[in-house]
Design a protein that fits this description.
This protein is mainly α and 64 residues long. The protein has helices at 3-27, 33-63. The model has no long low-confidence stretch (mean pLDDT 86).
Length: 64
């Protein structure tokens, strides 16, 4: 697996785990659920941006 794909996979898995963790914390009515879910959302946004970057990079190479 390419290094760039591993980074993307880690970002997606991290965000997903943080969403699940935040939901569990929210169900238990503990403090910090919103913070955990916000961090998960930022991780997912980073993964989406990085996937877009990889896609653009790949399409530029194909054009040449």
């Amino acid at each position: 697996m390419k290094r760039s794909h591993r980074i993307l996979l880690v970002l997606v898995l991290t965000g997903t785990i943080e969403f699940i963790l935040g939901a569990c914390v929210r169900i238990l009515n503990l403090a910090g659920a919103n913070l955990i879910m916000t961090i998960g959302l930022l991780s997912q946004i980073s993964a989406l941006g990085y996937a877009g970057y990889l896609s653009l990079k790949k399409s530029r190479v194909a054009v040449r």
